[in-house]
Amino acid sequence: MISAKDLKNPHVVRRDLLASLVVFLVALPLCVGVAVASGVPAELGLVTGIVGGLVVGLLPGSKLQVSGPAAGLTVLVFEAVKEFGLSTLGPIVLAAGLLQVVLGVARFGRWFRAISVSVVQGMLAGIGLIIVLGQVYAMADLEQPGSGLAKLAGLPGLAIDIVTNQEALTAFGLGAGTIAVLLLWPKLPARARIVPAPLAAVALATAVASLAGLRPAVADVNGLLNAIDLPGGAEFSRLADVAVIGTVLAFALIASAESLFSAAAIDRMHDGPRTDYDKELVAQGVGNTICGALGALPMTAVIVRSAANVQAGATTALSRVAHGLWLLLFAALLPAAIGIIPLAALAGVLVHAGCKLVPAKEFGPLWREHRGEAILLAITAIAIVVTNLFEGVVLGLLLAVVKSAWETSHVQLTTHELTGGRVVVTLTGNATFLRLPRILEQLEKLPQDQPIELDLTGLRHLDHACRVALENWARRHNNAEIEPVTIRQ
């Protein structure tokens, strides 16, 4: 929320308004690009961005995180629209938003504070790879395959199409030129870099296409009000469909995960107030509820826009609210400007954004210092590409829990033979099911013709699986003529 104290400080207001312009110029091509990639009118991406700024920006949770349409939901939205129709998208998003509000009120969001950093980085890397693999087809004005594996398998065919098809080659050239501008822009003098790189790249690609007389594919533009289609009773009745309910759950969980993982990443980029995860989850739910009522795209907190906000020097929520106002003014006053932007240029912006989410430079040092964390990051990212965002993240979380349990479940087994032939076996540390095979392997090597006492008093933790397995071992280990193994706990 924006405090009156912040608004009375002209230095803060000036700095945050300047930051909001940067975020607006970054968000504009991304909002349009995500909408087009999702198979919906470009204006609906702007509607979601506007709601993310003007509504979610005013709600408590995170001061610096910016919300809007996200590339991570592109595939899910595309499939939902394809299966249920664009008119059903609104009720699905609205129901998902209400579910997010319930989860936030139930304090579900706070559990995301325990998320492994490697899982967060893996999630971002997976999203980045999905964006790159999908939008490289859009750069050539060609239809992209549905799954991640199909996109990978189709790359050789894509290369052949680009080389042999003049229209595809022209479009791909515009997209590649857009990426080149994005890469070279940070190296220009500071005065030139006043204009954000995404806006400059898209403007230059549009100008080149226009001056050269090219006719690449562009977005259909109908105006903001014409694009909004308020869902009615017939559309809401589809929520009783089991398949639709499954999509609602997927939207809610994936949008929540991406938003709260993004919050974890953004909190590491600044020294200001930390995100209240429960309130942020409620805020995202309110935003999605409104987007659903307007028939727009679902929203999440977006790492690219949020990072741009922090890097531009924003310190309050004013910047993210103002960026929503700039989006509204643009959509109301200059809607026709969207219709001249080549889709290949928008795809180039998304490919560049996707590449930045893949932590290629950080992976090498992480591999050398914490190999297990690097493996966790890689598996999470690959799983997201092969399956989907939700399943990939869940797999990463499960592996993180297993890894943590394995590292903490150290157990030592020592053997001492007393006078009279009695053998005392002592276990110390943490005995969990993860160490059970090793424990049983050592115990089964003990003699079966001597009295044995198993001392468990030195264990700090003994889980149920280990307890049952040790009791079963004690009952059957010794020969019939020898007294059974005794357990001291």
Automatic annotation (TrEMBL):
The keyword Membrane applies. The chain crosses the membrane at residues 17-37, 84-106, 118-140, 168-185, 239-261, 281-304, 324-353, 374-402. It is found in: Membrane. Residues 14-380 form the SLC26A/SulP transporter domain. It is a multi-pass membrane protein. It comes from the Bacteria. Keywords: Membrane, Transmembrane, Transmembrane helix. The keyword Transit peptide does not apply. SUPFAM superfamilies: SpoIIaa-like. Pfam families: Sulfate_transp. This is Na(+)-dependent bicarbonate transporter BicA. It comes from Streptomyces globisporus.
